[in-house]
Amino acid sequence: MEYDNITRATFLRRPNRFIAEVEINGHKETVHVKNTGRCRELLIPGCEVYLTEQGKPERKTRYDLVAVRKANGILFNIDSQAPNQVVREWLEGQDFDKVIPEYTYGDSRIDFYMERCEEEGEPERHLMEVKGCTLEIDGIGYFPDAPTDRGIKHLRELTKAVRDGYKASLAFVIQMDGVTEVRPNIKTHPEFGEAWKEAQAAGVEVIFLTCHVEPNRLVIL
C-alpha cells in the first residue's frame, strides 16, 4: 500500500492518544495519530515522523501521522489501518477462490474469511485475524503494547473455529524492517500470552508477515 502527499516533520508531543503536535519547517501543527496504542518507545520528542495529507477541508486536522523513525534508524509504520490493507492485497495474490473481509463469526468480526475450493467435497474454509506489530525490543517484535481484551476475544474465537472445522490463523504484520518474529508481550498483558498459547495448542497457526517500510509505503515481503 502507498500514501500520497507525504511530509516529513519533527515530533514534539502527544497531548492525547488521538493527536500529536509536530513541527513542519518551523511551524507547529496539530495532526491526527493513526494509532491509539501507546507507542511510547517511538513517539519521543525530537524524533522524525512522516505525515500524509488527506486533502479534506472539513477535517479538524490537515495531516495524519503514519510513520516514525526510531533512534536506531529503523522506520516504523504506525498506521493501525495499514495491516488489514496490506494483508488484503497480499491475500489477493494467494491461491484462494474467495476472500471476504470483516467476516462475522460467533460474537466477533474476524478480519478475513477465505475459501479454497477442492475438486471434491466441501471447500477448505479459513479465518484470519490480523494484528499490526509496532513494538520492537532488541530485534524482536512484541504484541500487544497495551492490554487488549479484544485481542483475547479474537484468539478464543479462532480457537473455537478450529474445533468447528475451519483453518484459523493469527497474522502479524511486522510494521518495520529487519524483524522476523513476534512474541506475546506477557509483561504488559500476561492473559494475552496465555490465550496465545492455548490457541496454538488448539491448532491456530501464527503467521509472521515481514515488511519493508518507506515513508510513503508499506509492503509485505
What do these coordinates show?
- This protein has 221 residues and is an alpha+beta fold.
- The protein folds into two domains: 6-77, OB fold (Dihydrolipoamide Acetyltransferase, E2P) (Beta Barrel); 82-220, Trna Endonuclease, Chain: A, domain 1.
- Helix content is 17%, strand content 44%.
- The chain has three helices and 16 strands.
- The protein has helices at residues 82-91, 149-163, 190-202; strands spanning 6-16, 19-24, 27-33, 48-53, 63-69, 75-77, 98-105, 108-116, 124-133, 135-137, 140-143, 167-174, 182-184, 205-209, 211-214, 217-220.
- The strands form four sheets. A five-stranded mixed barrel has the order 1-2-3-5-4. The protein has a five-stranded mixed sheet with strand order 7-8-9-12-14, sandwiched between helices.
- Helix 2 runs parallel beside helix 3 (190-202).
- It is globular and about 65 Å long.
- The two termini are 12 Å apart.
- The model has no long low-confidence stretch (mean pLDDT 95).
Strand content: 35-45%
Q: Please provide the count of β strands.
A: 16
How many domains would you count in the coordinates? 2
Helix content: 10-25%
Shape: globular
- What structural category arises from helix and sheet content? alpha+beta
Strand order of the largest sheet: 1-2-3-5-4
Low-confidence stretches: none
Question: In this structure, how is the largest beta sheet organized?
Answer: 5 strands, mixed, barrel
> Treating each run of at least 4 consecutive H or I residues as one helix, how many helices?
3
CATH class of the largest domain: Alpha Beta
Rg for CA atoms: 19 Å
CATH architecture of the largest domain: 3-Layer(aba) Sandwich
- The SSE order reads EEEEEEHEEEEEHEEHEEE
Mean pLDDT, nearest integer?
95
Query: N- to C-terminal separation?
Result: 12 Å
Q: Which fold name corresponds to the CATH topology of the largest domain?
A: Trna Endonuclease, Chain: A, domain 1
